[in-house]
Amino acid sequence: MIVIDNLLTADEVQHFRQVLATVPFNDGKNTAMGMAAGVKNNGQADAQDQQVKHLANALLAKLGNHPQVVSAALPQRIFPPCFNRYSETQTYGYHVDAAIMRIPNTADVLRSDMSMTVFLSDPTTYEGGELVIQTGFGEQSIKCAEGSAILYPSSSLHKVTPVTQGERIAAITWMQSMVSDQHIRETLYQLDQSIQSLINNTNANRQELDRLHHVYHNLIRHFSVL
Ligand SMILES: O=C(O)CCC(=O)C(=O)O
Ligand SMILES: [Fe+2]
User: Which tens digits make up the pLDDT trace of 10-55?
Assistant: First the structure.
């Protein structure tokens, strides 16, 4: 589970919120698959709306270019982000995200390996609305600052607790990774993070760094499936 701090700048968050305040929202149940529909109670911005498409594309471009997102998810495909809104009393009970998702208006499908929530509301403006994820170490409850995001394995059970005051707006998306094995993906992420911090360390031995870089790329070559 990885927090991406400041994925969006304050200005970008404000722009997203301003646009989302003007676009039509539909019942979130319409896009839930199978059992998830029974526990889903939120609103979802109309994905056919031109302004919503524009925001989704802007976020998509941002994700594909973000070094930490790329390092953690090794994305091959990213689902066009959706925008959801939980008003007072709204909630999304425990569910697992569908393993295979059809990318709207295309013939392509995506296997969800990693799920992402980008928090767009200032956390001091709403109560409740925590994203709770079941992990091997118990439940983790997450409420990020506006503009920050959480990336977590799509295989996990998760829920959004009821909003008891205010309104929670977020963008959500799913990624198919070039490396489907979660454990290997995590290990590659750790290796890359170490390499990146050595690159920024002026005392690091250049030859050793080149060797680590070489190892990282050969591991990607070995484990990625395109
Ligand atoms: O809003 C969130 O943080 C997560 C929503 C969710 O789990 C979903 O739409 O599948
Ligand atoms: Fe979900």
Answer: 999 999 999 999 999 999 998 887 778 889 999 999 999 999 999 9
Question: Residue 97 annotated as binding?
Answer: yes
Mutation to probe ligand 1, out of 20, 101, 117, 157 (largest number of atoms < 8 A from CB): 117
85 is in an annotated binding site: no
φ, ψ of residue 66 in degrees (nearest 5): -90, 115
- Residue 158 token pair: 């998760």
Tell whether ligand 1 has an atom less than 6 A from the beta carbon of residue 177: no
CA pair distance 195, 55, nearest whole angstrom: 33
Q: Which ligand is nearest to the CA of 160?
A: 1
Q: CA 186 to CA 188: how far, in whole Å?
A: 5
Asked if 195 and 209 touch (Cβ cutoff 8 Å), the reply is yes
| Cα distance between residue 187 and residue 185, in whole Å | 5
Q: What is the DSSP string of 15-79?
A: HHHHHHTTS-EEEGGGG--TTHHHHEE-EEE-TTSHHHHHHHHHHHHHHHT-HHHHHHH-EEEEP
